[in-house]
Amino acid sequence: MNIRPYEERDFDHIQTLNKAEGWHQLVRQHELTKQAWQQSNVAYVVESETGLVVAYVRGLTDTTVSLYVCELLIAASHRRLGIGEQLLSHVHALYPETRLEMLASASSHTYYEKLNFRPFYGYRKTIHE
Q: Engineering a disulfide at 46: which of 17, 55, 89, 98 sits with its beta carbon 3.0 to 4.6 angstroms away?
C-alpha cells in the first residue's frame, strides 16, 4: 500500500468509492465535491500494489491548532488491514502539534474509540439542493 498526495486523476476513483459506500450527496454534487478536493490542504489517497485507489482521507488544517478530517473512506475489500489508522497517523504526523478532529457515524464510533479518540458533542447542518 502506498499513501500519496491526491492528484486530479484520482477523483473518479474517489467517487466510485463514495458511490459504493452510499455517500450519495458527494456523488450527486460531483463538481462541488471535486472543488472541495482541489481546495483541501489535507488530501491523500492509498494505492494498492496494482495502482488502484482503495482509500482516502480529505481534511482541512490551520497547521497549528486543528486538523479536521472531513472524510475518511476505505474500500470494503480493504478494511480491517489498518489502512485507516495508517492514513490518520500519516496526516497527523504532518501536523503533529494539532488536535485531530472528525465526526463519526453511530456505526463507526467504536473504531475511533479503539484508536483513543474521545467523543465530543457537535452539530451539523446540511444544505439541501
A: 55
pLDDT, tens only, 45-62: 999 999 999 999 999 999
Q: What single-letter DSSP state applies at residue 107?
A: T
Contact 61, 98 (CB under 8 A): yes
Burial 78-108 (b: 16+ CB within 10 A, else e): beeeebbebbbeebbeebeebebebeeeeee
Q: Which helix (H) or strand (E) holds 42?
A: strand 42-47
Name the residue type at position 31. Answer: E
Among the listed residues 23, 99, 116, 10, the one whose alpha carbon sits nearest the alpha carbon of residue 62: 99
Report residue 126 as a C-alpha cell: 446540511
